[in-house]
Write a structure and sequence with these properties.
3-stranded antiparallel sheet, 1 helix, about 10% helix, mainly beta, binds zinc ion, OB fold (Dihydrolipoamide Acetyltransferase, E2P)
Length: about 140
């Protein structure tokens, strides 16, 4: 019986560590500016739109549409080898920012620009989780 090799887990710090800790706690959160209302990603201490320091984590819907994707045939990380060929998708979230995640729940042939998708989170450790995107059957195409 062959055991699946573990995936490489980065060691983020600062706001990136906070982002992944929220994911590991089961919450997809991005930085929200209370001054101008913009939600942005990657996380910053100051609002990228207005420069305000009044920026906090806020949960988002997890819903979005596929903006782009790429398919990996030769993994650098052996932890992903059992999933070959696997797709990395860039999703424009309903709140605006784009997030990167792994594709699951349908074949790579099902990937389409603007396809409605929904995020799920899967823990790799107590402080790190991966984002997966699957077709959102409840959304209208
Ligand atoms: Zn702002």
């Amino acid at each position: 019986m062959s055991e699946r090799p573990p995936k490489m887990i980065p060691d983020p710090d600062g706001l990136n560590a906070e982002f992944y800790q929220h994911l590991a706690d089961g919450n997809l959160c991005l930085r929200h500016c209370d001054a101008c209302g913009v939600i942005h990603h990657p996380p910053k201490y100051l609002c990228a739109a207005c420069g305000s320091e009044d920026v906090h984590w806020t949960p988002i819907s997890g819903k979005g549409r596929i903006f782009s994707w790429t398919i990996t045939h030769r993994p650098i990380d052996p932890g992903w080898a059992p999933d070959l060929p696997w797709a990395t998708v860039v999703v424009e979230m309903d709140e605006g920012p784009r997030l990167v995640g792994a594709w699951r729940g349908a074949s790579n042939d099902a990937l389409r620009l603007d396809l409605p998708v929904r995020a799920t989170l899967e823990n790799e450790s107590e402080s790190f989780a991966l984002i997966y995107f699957s077709p959102d059957a409840e959304a209208s195409a």
